[in-house]
Recover the amino acids of this structure.
């Protein structure tokens, strides 16, 4: 073991320096960091566009004795400059009376209305409200509608002259939020849910790029050395196992270096969201916040699953690359790893929209999928610590098996020249390594 470490370290250092000093690495790192910076600042742009948009709201009145104009009363709160969360000088809501409730609800499902505010009168004589919309009861839209309901109720109380508006429970009897159509799972706080989705999607994409890009780097590096006959010189000074471990560690270190630059740009952009929004938009509105889901724990989970996921796939990529001698054959032998990586990416992408689906948790323990799915569950906060630990343990065990398997293939494969990739050549390499 002690004699293996120096040689493996020399191979890893050579691979690392060769990658990070290349022009392609520097340019791609700069581009990806710029993209991360833009994505990190995108919530500010989205909120700026959102403030310029005018939402359409329907009001349906069931209370037959309502003596005020609910549209006019709601307009005071929803479009008043002082009370509309710093949207001075513009109409935030277009409000219209909806005689037919079913038609209005259908318009909500179609996206024409953000919601339908149904006004009725409860047994106590106070008004009751139902907001029919696919929004969170604790979200920004529902909170704004409650403000409108307070003002409509006050106007109604003044109109009726005998109704107290200061008793227990407030000026209205009830305010409920009803989904306009079928929804999957629960409705969390809207800004938090949006932040979780953005973060989970971004991290899943980064893991996918890691596996596809850096894994292919490992395979291509093996083929390049076989073509140039450098492999034969290296084998005179080191063993195939040393070369395999050195290549995986060196390329992985280069990938981690690139990701540190990308994450630094992304975190810097998130920290700058508040000051930039204060400068350009005059401060943030109620319910607006940076991506609060980006925590230290999530970043540690990302680094862990990034490292383990890359290590698992890179070992197999190296073994696959050792079986061929031409660059054009690399894609063919790497196809099984590409398919597995794509499957994990697509499953995780679907999981970000249905994180509580019954199939997500079991698949998050499958080694080739867990770097994607378990990371998504961590981002959404739907996983227990023991589940993360179990997933990591299974992944580590799989890496040990993959390392043994890859070392046997690599040991014979690096000395095979001129053979086209096939099941027969694969079997031959495996048997020769015994």
């Amino acid at each position: 073991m002690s004699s293996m470490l120096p040689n493996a370290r020399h191979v890893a250092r050579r691979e690392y320096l060769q990658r990070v000093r290349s022009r392609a690495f520097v340019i791609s790192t700069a581009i990806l960091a710029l993209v991360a910076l833009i994505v990190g600042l995108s919530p500010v742009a989205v909120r700026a566009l959102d403030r310029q948009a005018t939402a359409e709201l329907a009001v349906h009145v069931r209370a037959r004795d309502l003596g005020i104009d609910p549209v006019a009363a709601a307009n005071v709160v929803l479009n008043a400059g002082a009370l509309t969360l710093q949207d001075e000088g513009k109409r935030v809501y277009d409000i219209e009376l909806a005689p037919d409730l079913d038609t209005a609800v259908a318009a909500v499902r179609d996206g024409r209305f953000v919601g339908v505010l149904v006004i009725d009168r409860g047994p106590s004589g106070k008004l009751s409200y139902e907001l029919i919309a696919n929004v969170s009861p604790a979200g920004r839209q529902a909170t704004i509608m409650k403000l409108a309901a307070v003002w409509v109720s006050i106007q109604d109380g003044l109109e009726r002259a005998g109704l107290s508006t200061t008793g227990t429970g407030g000026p209205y009897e009830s305010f409920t939020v009803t989904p306009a159509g079928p929804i999957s799972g629960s409705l969390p706080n809207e800004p938090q849910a949006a932040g979780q989705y953005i973060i989970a999607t971004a991290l899943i994409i980064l893991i996918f790029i890691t596996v596809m890009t850096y894994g292919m780097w490992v395979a291509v590096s093996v083929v390049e050395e076989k073509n140039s006959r450098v492999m034969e010189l290296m084998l005179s000074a080191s063993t195939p196992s040393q070369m395999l471990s050195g290549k995986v560690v060196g390329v992985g270190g280069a990938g981690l270096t690139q990701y540190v630059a990308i994450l630094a740009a992304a975190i810097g952009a998130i920290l700058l969201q508040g000051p930039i929004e204060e400068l350009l938009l005059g401060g943030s509105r109620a319910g607006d916040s940076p991506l609060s889901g980006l925590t230290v724990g999530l970043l540690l989970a990302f680094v862990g699953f990034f490292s383990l996921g890359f290590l698992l796939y890179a070992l197999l990529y190296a073994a696959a690359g050792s079986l061929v001698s031409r660059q054009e054959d690399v894609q063919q032998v790497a196809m099984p790893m590409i398919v597995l990586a794509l499957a994990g990416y697509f499953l995780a992408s679907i999981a970000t929209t249905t994180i509580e689906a019954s199939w997500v948790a079991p698949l998050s323990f499958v080694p080739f999928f867990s770097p994607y799915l378990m990371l998504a569950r961590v981002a959404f906060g739907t996983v227990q610590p023991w589940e993360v630990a179990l997933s990591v343990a299974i992944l580590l065990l799989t890496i040990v098996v993959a390392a043994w398997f890859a070392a046997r293939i690599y040991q014979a494969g690096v000395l095979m020249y001129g053979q086209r990739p096939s099941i027969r050549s694969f079997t031959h390499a495996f048997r020769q390594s015994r």
Summary: Residues 4-47+189-432 form one domain. Strands lie at 55-61, 93-97, 115-121, 127-132, 174-178. The mean pLDDT is 75. Residues 156 and 246 are 77 Å apart (CA to CA).
